[in-house]
Predict the 3D structure of the following.
Amino acid sequence: MIGLKRWKKAKSDDAEAIVINGARKSTGGRTKTRVVMTMAVFFGIYATIAGRLVFYGLQNPDESRGPASRVTASRPDIVDRNGEVLATDIKTFSLFAEPRRIVDADEAVEKLSTVLTDLDVEQTYHKLKSGTGFVWLKRQLTPRQQADIMQLGLPGIGFRTEKRRFYPAGETTSHIVGLTNIDNKGISGLEKYIDDQGLADLQASGLAIASDLQPVRLSVDLRVQHIVRDEIVNAMQKYHAIAAGAVVLNAKTGEVVAMASVPDFDPNNPYNAQDKDRLNRMSAGVYEMGSTIKSFTTAMALDSGKVNMNSTFDARRPITIGRQTIRDFHGKGRVLTLPEVFIYSSNIGSAREADVVGIDGHREFLKRIGLLDRMKTELPEVARPTEPRVWKKVHSITIAFGHGMSTTPLQTAVGAAALMNGGKLFEPTFLPRSQADADAHSSQILNPQTSMDMRYLYNLNATAPGGSGKRATVPGYRVGGKTGTAEKVVNGRYASDVRFNAFLAAFPMDDPQYVVLSIIDEPKPEKPGLPATAGMNAAPIVSNIIRRAAPMLGVQPDFSQETEAKLASYQ
Amino acid sequence: MAATSRLDTSPVAVWWRTVDRWFLAAFLSLMGLGIVLSFAASPAVAERIGLDSFHFATRQIIFTLPALGVMLLVSFLKPRQIRRLALFMLIAMLICMVAVLFLGVEVKGARRWLSFAGVSIQPSEFLKPAFVVMCAWLFAEHKRQPDIPGNFFAVGLLIVVVTLLVAQPDMGQTILVLGTWGIMFFMAGLPWFWIALLGGLGVGGGFVAYEMFDHVRGRIDRFLTGEGDTFQVDMGRDALINGGWFGVGPGEGTVKRVIPDSHADFVFAVAGEEFGLFLCFVIMVLFAFIVLRGLSIALKEHDDFTRYAVGGLVVVFGLQSVINMCVNLQLMPAKGMTLPFISYGGSSLIAIAISMGMVLSLTRKKPEKRRQMGLGASVPPHSVPAE
């Protein structure tokens, strides 16, 4: 406005001036026009610049700056039944480059390799030369590495904050908790289960916000889990086995309190997690469980009502069927009562027990107790049991003492829980389950009386002279169980010196609360000359676990029974 | 502002009464921005070439002090003294420019710098204001007394200066000098016939340069097609867009690390990235204000010399700013051109300070003009208070 007024004023000056000094002002007038034209041109140019600035202001900043949110999806913490953290998200820094902004790729690679000594120099160089907008150079660096790289002052590189899974318990819970991949997606164990329960969808829709996610609570007790793993690691070493495993299962609810299988892996550095021998043998491995299966054979015979605890079975002669001859390992060469068949682990006797119910009845019973079907539980790594395609007499006979059918150790333990808890079968779970919930989702598959008889037999096997489970006893905790020493198939034949041993136990026997199963694969004698049977290696594992864990599991020790037994013997 | 008594006739008091404070404020703002932005842009460059991080920033401050002094000092001079200063500078700088061809330091294939007693100066920077003032004087003399061949001398002077600049070679300064001279001549009332002829020559010269010089052709082709190595200008654009209206924050910019001349030719983009387009706007408005105010003063001026000199000085200033900003904004083919007061450069800063000191000096309110006009009642238009 002011300028305009002045312009008018100047014009009026002009008019006046012309009168006084015509000749000079006439060219002055032309000059003024020219100056005005120059001003107009400059004004136009500056206006263009202003327009360009506004245009830039309305542009969106370059969005090609790589995946920002996708990789930072949060996961809920995983905690044990007491709230101990088993898996949590921590912040890490991932290095990316924008090759278009890299000034000197040689310098960048050279400097980066001083911090990241394992950087693939050639590959990184090609990445930086690629001219694309965004490349990852190295994911999940430590804060120290990040600081060192920042100190390099390289242009064209940057960091994204990413979430990375950290497992405070390390190897101890590796198989249960599982793993996530580099994008924080669950790929095994309960991590995968969590994703399958809808977390993945939540993450995809961007709703997985760290603070909103409730921790996932497991039924696992980290203290017991530690004991279990510690014991099987020791056992594997002590008996020079290729693998070992154990599970502690709540017999009344089906909750897995602890489960471990070694060799395992460090979930914080899982470079070998995919190795074949590091699988979770307890649920993803199938084995001929050997004599532990006789528990089921015996229970089947009792449950059929055709035999009772006083029934006898002729174990005098081996059974020959086809080309196979069935012998007893601890052969007594006489007629055995049902409890004797059990505690002497008579193959012949067990075959006779199976014979009582017949082939179809045998298969039906194993199916009913869940040993022939793929177990349903949260853990994704579950193997499908194998059985003969067509059951024949010979199959029924061998399966009666645990050969010819392979099943997973975990479902063997679950079946045993049904034998112990009054006949209720439920799916094992790694999540907390109340008694009411367990009752609601269980099915009654046995007569309660069968269960009572089985408790008696388990107890007997650990207490009676000659019982194979004596080494599993723990003072005060009334452990009962059944050994299983299975010969492994080597080159298509059963090899008498390559074994898969197991001990299937429960405690306290007057009202079993927990089922404990240990397995040990290809154990060698602890000392030369000693046998490498389940009673010598698998049973002590169970004993050690129970001795250390039972106080934590809230099982009241009761020494009175042993004392009474002693007193009784004096009477 | 502290008003001084009219009775106070000390030089400072008179100066304060008569100096154009709007200009003064604008120049000081730009100088201040120059220092602030040198902290933004130059550490990255200094580190890249292995100097102390604040090498350039410190030097910018060190140069700003004498620049400020020189500007104020020159603004105290009278128009006659300005002419003498210009003549002296012109002669001295012409000698220097001849000398630079033989003694100059060769940088990137051009000899532009003269170094003595540990100080390097770029004579062409100092030549510009001297050249503008002398041309203004020549045009004014020709107009006052058409028998004096002022225009002829002006053409001669132009040819000498352009020859020396091309010999360096320094295309940027050549274009600047040619453009300024043309605009001054245009303002001085050059007949349209000559305008058409010179315009035609300019266009023809442009074509010749396009055909003859590969790097000229390359730059124009790249600008027109957007293909080839447009790294610097692309980075400049990305920086401005990335910064958005309010910038990514001081020190947060990334482009300055990538563009080689971020403290000189691309300081505008760096300012945009770190402080936002808003600051770019402020800078642009300051330049536009100086140019348009200078031209509007020239418009109302009654003394031809002052008119041409002020007009020419703000035009060279304006052209430089416009070219720099347009390159940063991808409105023009890439051409290295400093942004007056803002870009790093000692010679440039002091030379610009001299130019603007001359502008301040020439735009001071001059009571003698009223006498010259013979209209005692009339006051110079630009001193009329705005109602």
In short: The longest strand of chain A covers residues 493-507.
